[in-house]
Amino acid sequence: DQQVKQNSPSLSVQEGRISILNCDYTNSMFDYFLWYKKYPAEGPTFLISISSIKDKNEDGRFTVFLNKSAKHLSLHIVPSQPGDSAVYFCAASARDYGGSQGNLIFGKGTKLSVKP
Amino acid sequence: DAGVTQSPTHLIKTRGQHVTLRCSPISGHKSVSWYQQVLGQGPQFIFQYYEKEERGRGNFPDRFSARQFPNYSSELNVNALLLGDSALYLCASRKGSRTGNEQFFGPGTRLTVL
Predict the structure, then answer these.
(1) What is the pLDDT of residues A1-20, one digit of tens each?
(2) Span A39-67, mean pLDDT?
(3) CA dist list (Å): A42 to A76, A94, A100, B78
(4) Which of A75, A101, B36, B106 would be a feasible disulfide site paired with A21, CB 3.0-4.6 Å?
């Protein structure tokens, strides 16, 4: 069963507008969430993260919102640029028995296309 | 600063063969993780090493093994290759394991099994 779900395989947005990518999770033990961007033939690039003790984190044009009660997070990109066109992965992790953060569980990704 | 490096970039093997993939983490990072990504899916966790000890293993058969060396570089070994092992193999490093969980990925090794 998928613990991290990205239900939209693709999203198309006009340049300058807002892109909103969504992610849902099922495991209530997850306490750290990350977004990665991936271009073809490259490894994922870390974008932004959020701890479960927060509900918002902002870095430049990127903002991540976390709704723990709904087990939902979203990534907002404002304004969107053509160079943002890539596959975006949501990832989550939980602490192990020793209190250390464990491995990342990824969603299947959402392909964002930003049109000029 | 150099990022995570992986070698080789591409590899073609035949069924039944063995393969070794290599990874060098970002300087100062002591934790290395390996992930497998097949087309249309997100990366799937294989192994995590911290200070040369295995800290986690994903749902992969025993044909998959790994190790971490004193300089924190790592190797992933896959024996008796199957067609289904064809994938992008990603290595990720992070500083420690108790604070955030930002993992930084290398470019990957594209393995094709014929």
Answers:
(1) 789 999 999 999 999 999 99
(2) 95
(3) 23, 26, 28, 22
(4) A75
